[in-house]
Specification:
Its main location: nucleus. With 498 residues, the chain is mainly alpha-helical. It contains 15 helices and twelve strands. The protein binds a DNA duplex (15 and 15 nucleotides) through helix 4, helix 12, helix 13, helix 14 and helix 15.
Length: 498
DNA sequence: CTGGGGACGGGGCCC
DNA sequence: CGGGCCCCGTCCCCA
């Protein structure tokens, strides 16, 4: 069949670094696979040319089995992906706040109280999630819903949704997997993305890979259905979603029945793009390997922020090529800029629902060819979706770099009290703390003679002057000046209505 | 037990 | 982009 034949002719070679390449198709002829493969081949060649790749042309191929064996031999003991807290840190769970390295003997009260406070993480108690824990977790809401995907396939044959990279086998992948079902736990050579040690561990030849090399691999050797790991989303690269449809499995195939039995098909072609400042052939880590890299190089957790930012999870948008296939296809495919500028049905693509229509799962733009949809998704939807930044110390993610930097300060605690040595994440927190030493209370109550060092405490105090407090018990309508009082009121069973 | 104060943490917003 | 500030929140302690 066309797909298998193509896979057999893919780019496996000793110079070609396979980095998370999957190509598993069902009944490709139903989706214009011939056209897709033609376009993909041209695209790959163009990208190789664009990136100055030298090496064998497509057709020099290794089998996936051999490739996987090579991977295992090259990296027999790759560590599993893990969130590695910085050295000297206590705990690694989300929301668990490490003790400051600058602190002297912990103040017993706050040591206990903080630990207890952090134990009630917002992840375990979403109902009590404080505002301060409202961390944007972009991908957490984007885990593919397989049931939904399957249900939508009929109406939208191109209903391939950007899944998430499984994080690779060694802590952070470098591909985007479309439509889940990729083993997020990232066994090396088995659906994993190029991990943080990919350049070293993934090269079958043992040589440092050249970044632009491309590979396609039929993931037909999967012995078990891949799954999503929802904890890591560090992804990068270029991926093409291949079409899915509920079809019978090809009979003449060596593919695992479990895979073919699935109604969805995996397709992920990843291009390890040269990163900014990353020389070809080097084994320097990509910008995505925040936790692992930092923990490995032993950087002190309290290192200056600017240093820590060297490993920030920058958007893969920065690494996108700006050239596209010269011959993307004879049909209505638009140039990428046009696609970005609103290309879609109004620009020549057939209306939704017409034969051969390819619809973007996210923005519902339709394209006449799959290649058009692919380009649209690479330049538009997926890139927008991947504009997030991950903390190197924990698994929190933010939509802006500034927010991430602010969060990282909660780990590095750069503001240190000169009097007691206590460390704080922000200067104004330190300033407020210093008031506890000086006794300064700049916030005076307008109703009484009391003054406070903390504005929040003044605000809470002002509640005491009000007959109707801010927090009201829904059972007995009694009001309280503080949430904690209301909570205690409920928990103590002192509410007469309860 | 309850109300309140004190100290502190974190994200968002504004400049 | 960074600093300052705002707002919301928590917990502990004490009267």
């Amino acid at each position: 069949m066309a797909c298998a034949a193509y896979v057999q002719d893919c780019y496996y070679s000793s110079q070609c670094v396979p980095t998370c390449c999957f190509l598993t198709c069902l009944s490709p002829q139903d989706f214009g696979m011939a056209h897709l493969l033609k376009w993909l081949t041209e695209w790959l060649l163009d990208v190789r040319q664009l990136l100055g790749v030298t090496g064998p042309e497509p057709g020099v191929c290794r089998t996936p089995v051999r490739w996987q064996r090579s991977l295992r031999e090259a990296a027999p003991s790759a560590p599993p992906p893990a969130l590695v807290p910085g050295p000297g840190r206590t705990g690694g769970s989300p929301g668990q706040r490490p003790l400051s390295p600058h602190l002297g003997p912990p103040r017993g009260i706050h040591g206990t109280h903080r630990a207890r406070a952090q134990s009630a993480t917002p992840f375990s108690l979403p109902g009590k999630m404080p505002r301060s824990f409202l961390v944007k977790k972009h991908w957490s809401n984007r885990i593919p819903n397989y049931g939904q995907l399957e249900s939508q396939k009929g109406a939208s044959p191109a209903g391939v949704r950007a899944g998430e990279c499984g994080g690779g086998g060694v802590g952070g992948g470098r591909c985007w997997n479309f439509l889940g079902n990729i083993d997020g736990e990232g066994k090396e050579g088995e659906g994993g993305c190029q991990g943080s040690r990919g350049p070293e561990t993934m090269a079958p030849s043992g040589n440092p890979p050249t970044a632009p090399d491309l590979c396609l691999r039929a993931d037909s050797q999967l012995s078990r259905p891949p799954k999503i790991n929802g904890s890591r989303y560090t992804c990068e690269g270029l991926v093409f979603p291949l079409l899915l449809q509920d079809r019978a499995a090809p009979s003449a195939s060596n593919d695992a029945p479990s895979l073919w039995d699935r109604k969805s098909v995996i397709a992920c072609i990843s291009l390890p793009l040269p990163l900014n400042g990353e020389a070809r052939g080097t084994s320097s880590p990509g910008p995505l390997e925040i936790s692992v890299v930092d923990s490995l190089d032993g950087r002190a957790p309290g290192a200056p922020l600017k240093e820590s930012l060297n490993h920030l999870n920058l958007s893969p948008l920065l690494n996108m090529p700006k050239q596209w296939p010269l011959n993307p296809g004879p049909e209505v495919d638009k140039a990428p800029d046009k696609l970005l500028g609103g290309g879609g049905p109004q620009e020549g693509s057939p209306p939704l629902g017409s034969v051969g229509c390819f619809e973007c799962f996210d923005c519902h733009k339709t394209y006449h060819t799959f290649s058009g949809l692919s380009k649209h998704r690479q330049l538009h939807c997926d890139l927008q979706a991947c504009r997030f930044f991950s903390c190197k110390y924990c698994d929190k993610e933010y939509s802006s770099l500034g927010a991430l930097k602010m969060h990282i300060r909660t780990h590095t605690l750069p503001c240190i009290c000169k009097i007691c040595g206590k460390a704080f994440s922000r200067p104004w927190l330190l300033q407020g703390h210093i008031r506890t030493h000086t006794g300064e209370k700049p916030y005076a109550c307008s109703h009484c003679s009391r003054a406070f060092a903390d504005r929040s405490n003044l605000r809470a105090h002002l509640q005491t002057h009000s007959d109707i407090k801010k927090y009201q018990c829904k059972s007995c309508t009694k009001t309280f000046s503080r949430m904690s009082l209301l909570t205690r009121h409920k928990e103590a069973g002192s509410c007469p209505a309860s």
